[in-house]
Amino acid sequence: MLEIVVKLALVAAAFAFLPLLVGQAEHKVMAHMQGRLGPMYAGAFHGWAQLVADGVKFAQKEDVVPRDADRWVFKLAPGVALVPYLLVLLVIPVGPDGQVALDLGPGVFFALAVMGVGVIGAIMAGWASANKYSLLGGMRVAAQLMSYELPMVFAASSVAMAAGTLSLTGIVDEWRWWWLPWQAVGGVVFFVAGLAELRRPPFDMPVADSEIIFGPYTEYGGLRFALFILSEYAGIVVLCALTTVLFLGGWKGPFLDTELGWLWTLLKVFALAFCVIWLRVSYPRMREDQLQKLAWAWLVPLSLAQLALTGVLKVAL
Amino acid sequence: MSGQEVVFALLGVVAVGSAILVVTTRRLVHAALWLVVSFGALAGGYLVLTAEFVAWVQVLIYVGAIVVLLLFGIMLTRAPIGESADLDSGNRWAAAAVAAATAAVLVTVVVMGFGDERMALEAGGGSAEALGASVFRTWVLPFEILSVLLLASLVGAIVLSRSDIRARPETRVRSEEREPERGDAGGEDGV
C-alpha cells in the first residue's frame, strides 16, 4: 500500500516537474542556438525561475469565456488535453524490478490509446471557441491525428512483435543492443509521428501562430491556456519516454543497469527532448499537403517495411 | 451483488444513458462528444470483464480514430454552436422500432444461449496472449475473410475518392460536375 502511494506521489511530482524542466530548457537552448541569452532575470541565476514567474502571471489573469462559445466544452477542453498524458506516465517504467507505477499487460496499447484521447481536447477547444481560426486549427488537428496515428501504431507494434510482449517492462527486458539498427526505421517513424501528434514544429500547422493565430488556443487565456501549454510539454516528456522505452532500451546502459537504471532512462529522455527543441529551432513549418504526403507516402510504407523486416528476422532467428 | 457487478451495472447505465443523449441532443458536436463517453464506458465494461486488450483497442480505435473522424466530418461541413432546430428526422419512430427490435433479438439470443449460467472471471482471460491464440488458432478463417472484406472496402474508398480514375466516356460529364464533392472524400481515407 505504502509502495503504491509513494509511486503515485513520484509520478505526480515527475508530471509537475519534468514538463517545466523541458520548457525551461527550450527557452535556454533556443536562445543560445539563435545567438541570444534567453531569460536571465527571474530567480537571479540564468533565469531559472522564469516558468514559475509565468505560472504566477497566468494564475492572476481573468478567466474569459467568449460570449458565443459553448461554455461547457470550452471549459472542459484543457482538462481533456492534459489528463491523458498523466495517465500514460503511470505505465512508463523508469528502472528494472518494478520501478513503474502500474505494470499493465497491454501497456503499449494503453499508452497509444490514451495519447490519442488527448487530441480530442484540442479539437474540442477548436470547435467550442466560436472562432473561425480556431475551427480551422481544430480541423487540422483532427486531420493530422488521423494520418499519423497509423504509422505510430505500426512502429510500436513492430517492437512489440520483436519482444513478443505488449508490456512496456517486458519490452525493455527483452531489448538487446542490436535492436538499435534492427528497429531504427521504426524508431524514427515513431518519433516523427509522435511529434506530429503533439503538433510540435515542423508539424505545427494546426497552431501556426503567424497565420491562424495559435489555432485552437486563440480564445484561451490565463490558467486554461497554461494548461494547454503544460499539456504540450507533458506530451514531449511522454513521447520521449515512450521512444526511450520502446526503441532505445529504457533503463539499459553501458554499465550499472540495475543500480542506475532510472538515470539512464532520464538521460535518454532528455537527449530526445533536446532533439525536439533542436527541430523546432532548425526546421521551417510544413504545409498542410506536405504534412499529409509525409504521413501517407513515407511514414506508412516505411513502418510497413519495418513490420515486414521484424517479422522476417523474428522467424529466421 | 459483488463489487464487480455493481461497477459493471453503473458503466452500463453510463453507456446507455450517453448513447441516448447522442441521438436526442440537439447540439450536433455534443452528440459526437457524448459518443466518446459512451465508448469510454463500454471500454470500462470490457475492463471489468478482464478483457484488457479489447478495452484499450476500443479506446484506440473508437475514441481515438472514429470519433475524431466524425468530428472532422462535422467541422468540415457545418458545426453550429448551440441548438439546431432541424436535427429531428421524421423517421425517428421507425428508427426507434428498429433499435428496439435489434436489442430484443440480441437480448433473446443471450438469454436463450446462457440463461442463468454464470462464468467465473479469471485474470488474464482476455489478455493479448489468450486473445491472439484464440483468433489465430480457432477463428483464423473468419479473421482472414474479414480482412479480405476490409481490403475490398479500402479499395472501394480509394476508387471513390480518386477523381482521376475515369471509366466510361459517357459518364465523364456528370462526374466532372460533381468534382467538388469528390475532393471532400479525401478525409475519409484516414480510417
From TrEMBL, chain A:
- State where the protein is found: Cell membrane; Membrane
Membrane-spanning regions, if any?
Answer: 72-95, 107-129, 150-171, 177-196, 225-249, 261-283, 295-316
Q: Name one GO molecular function term.
A: oxidoreductase activity, acting on NAD(P)H, quinone or similar compound as acceptor
Reaction(s) catalysed by this chain's protein: a quinone + NADH + 5 H(+)(in) = a quinol + NAD(+) + 4 H(+)(out)
Spell out the GO cellular component terms annotated for this protein, sorted alphabetically and separated by semicolons.
Answer: plasma membrane
In what way does this protein cross or attach to the membrane? Answer: Multi-pass membrane protein
* A GO biological-process term: aerobic respiration
The protein's matches in Pfam families, at most eight in alphabetical order, are given as: NADHdh
Main location class: membrane
- Answer whether the UniProt record assigns the keyword Cytoplasm to this protein: no
What EC number(s) are associated with this protein in UniProt? 7.1.1.-
The alphabetical list of record keywords is: Cell membrane, Membrane, NAD, Quinone, Translocase, Transmembrane, Transmembrane helix, Ubiquinone
Question: Matching InterPro entries, A to Z?
Answer: NADH_UbQ_OxRdtase_su1/FPO
On assembly, the entry states: NDH-1 is composed of 14 different subunits. Subunits NuoA, H, J, K, L, M, N constitute the membrane sector of the complex.
Q: Entry's PANTHER family?
A: NADH DEHYDROGENASE SUBUNIT 1, NADH-UBIQUINONE OXIDOREDUCTASE CHAIN 1
Instruction: Name the family.
Output: Belongs to the complex I subunit 1 family.
Its biological purpose is as follows: NDH-1 shuttles electrons from NADH, via FMN and iron-sulfur (Fe-S) centers, to quinones in the respiratory chain. The immediate electron acceptor for the enzyme in this species is believed to be ubiquinone. Couples the redox reaction to proton translocation (for every two electrons transferred, four hydrogen ions are translocated across the cytoplasmic membrane), and thus conserves the redox energy in a proton gradient. This subunit may bind ubiquinone.
**Cited HAMAP family:** NDH1_NuoH
- Name listed for the protein in its UniProt record: NADH-quinone oxidoreductase subunit H
Can you name the source organism? Actinomadura livida
The taxonomy runs: Bacteria, Bacillati, Actinomycetota, Actinomycetes, Streptosporangiales
From TrEMBL, chain B:
Tell me the domain of life.
Answer: Bacteria
Extent of Basic and acidic residues compositional bias: 169-185
The UniProt entry, under InterPro entries, shows: NADH_UbQ/plastoQ_OxRdtase_su6 (IPR001457), Nuo/plastoQ_OxRdtase_6_NuoJ (IPR042106)
Q: Could you cite one Gene Ontology molecular function of this protein?
A: NADH dehydrogenase (ubiquinone) activity
What is this enzyme's EC?
7.1.1.-
Substrates-to-products reaction catalysed:
a quinone + NADH + 5 H(+)(in) = a quinol + NAD(+) + 4 H(+)(out)
Gene3D superfamilies under this entry? NADH-ubiquinone/plastoquinone oxidoreductase chain 6, subunit NuoJ
Report the GO terms under cellular component. plasma membrane
Q: Which residues cross the membrane?
A: 6-24, 31-49, 55-81, 93-114, 139-160
User: Cellular location of this protein?
Assistant: Cell membrane
Q: How is this protein positioned relative to the membrane?
A: Multi-pass membrane protein
Q: What class of enzyme is it?
A: translocase
Family of this protein: Belongs to the complex I subunit 6 family.
What's the protein here called? NADH-quinone oxidoreductase subunit J
